Amino acid sequence: MQAVLYVSHGTRYDKGRQEALDFLQSIQPRVKAPLQEICFLEIISPNIEEGIHKLVNKGATSVAVIPVLLLKAGHALSDIPIELEKVQKKYPELTLTYGEPLGVQDRIIDAVEERVREVKKPIDTHTKLLLVGRGSYDSATKRDIGAVADGLKERFGIEDVDIAYLAAAKPSFNEAIEKMDNSTSVVVVPYLWFDGLLIQSMKEKVQFYNQNGGQASLCHHLNDHEIMKQALIDRVHEAFDTPFTGVKPLAGKKIAVAAERNSEAMEEIIRKQNGTPIIRSIQGEKWLHEKEAEVDVQRLIDSSFEWVILTTGIGARALEEASIRIGRQQQYLNKLQQTKLAIRGSKTVKWLKEKGLEPDLLSDDGTMDELIQQLKHEEIKGHRIFLQQYNKDEKELLDNLRALPIELYQSLPYHYISPDNEVLEDLRKLIVSHKLDAVLFTSKTQVQNLFAYAGKELIEPFHHHVLPVAVGQVTADELRHNGVSYLIEPDTPKMGAMIVGLTNHYKEQTLV
């Protein structure tokens, strides 16, 4: 017999609990299932297991589990699936299907628009909208709230909608409303489904703001809007045909990504494994030394060099772009064709292949140490070597090269400006408070930036609570250099392989 289990969030606020119950009871006659129950994810009873138990006792053979949630974040990706897996073990003959949260939908933005117009119409240039979400460490939540804000801009024909959050993301609601100009009429728009302590705290803050000269109105939350009812009914009927696939390896895990490039792709892979990605890019901003690179390319073309060492794909491309700006691209590529090439890094190799070039020496493990060892076995005495440096002067690397019987020319076509201290501090706090399960590092620069800011304070949490993951040996060596001895390093220095390595680690843990 088909059954439905609605999983609402849960609140200590009695009115909020009753709102959720009233809403879910009101849609049940419109849902095609003979058995329907309501449970709560946290704080109040019944919980998920108790809800399933009730349905099984009533004769349910198949249960569609419906997350009564606006957005797809940690609860939907991890918390509910973890509970369902426990239930599946207890009732192995029971068929479980699993629905989606409502997500961002045009019709729901229409409902938000109506809530705004209930308190203020028309909206004009003297009115500021402040959209307030619950908040999450998952950066997808910020994108979703941003999409709602974009929808409101379009519907009201306004240029800007401010955004704030009640927890786990910035700016906070308190910070945002305190920055508002008292001469501006503010409409506070809660992107929340049911009443609760968060709504009550917003009411108190708006009241305090108005008592101190502000002009703010608080919209009614979404609650029992007919659009919300139909949207959830549609999710229920979709869920009948969506099998529950079990808990994936990263379920319940909060994974910080320190990278900037490809962070969205990494984020998507983590989310597909039911993990919660937290993007905290600490690579810093890339700064190209265009004029210097142009001079370096001129020198390379017009002078005699026996070797060219290319250390990064970014650097190789930056030098090529410099050759294009000075109108000497083909001469630059011809020079590389005629000169012995010593290469490290998969991105550098990829650039070479695009240009039809082949390396004479290639670092087997992706490190400069390995490349220098190979150079020592070549006949290089008295040779001139053109070195494309990585990011900034590295004393140990340069000392090792200068110890060779060569003449060294150094080119630094780019470097990274240190990241914002606020981002570094946020990541430091997440690590030392053990709020993360792992941190993904995709370059040694990220490791250097973090340890330069936080120092040895990170070693204890990295050894016992938060798992550091390095994209390859260069990044792993930098972690070890800073005192981190236990980490994950994939066999292949690629971002996908790094996440696979992390996933396999957690799979092995479940087997122990």
Automatic annotation (TrEMBL):
<dbReference type="GO" id="GO:0004852">
    <property type="term" value="F:uroporphyrinogen-III synthase activity"/>
</dbReference>
<feature type="domain" description="Tetrapyrrole biosynthesis uroporphyrinogen III synthase">
    <location>
        <begin position="265"/>
        <end position="499"/>
    </location>
</feature>
<dbReference type="InterPro" id="IPR039793">
    <property type="entry name" value="UROS/Hem4"/>
</dbReference>
<dbReference type="InterPro" id="IPR036108">
    <property type="entry name" value="4pyrrol_syn_uPrphyn_synt_sf"/>
</dbReference>
<dbReference type="Pfam" id="PF01903">
    <property type="entry name" value="CbiX"/>
</dbReference>
<protein>
    <submittedName>
        <fullName>Uroporphyrinogen-III synthase</fullName>
        <ecNumber>4.2.1.75</ecNumber>
    </submittedName>
</protein>
<dbReference type="InterPro" id="IPR003754">
    <property type="entry name" value="4pyrrol_synth_uPrphyn_synth"/>
</dbReference>
<keyword id="KW-0456">Lyase</keyword>
<dbReference type="Pfam" id="PF02602">
    <property type="entry name" value="HEM4"/>
</dbReference>
<keyword id="KW-0479">Metal-binding</keyword>
<dbReference type="InterPro" id="IPR002762">
    <property type="entry name" value="CbiX-like"/>
</dbReference>
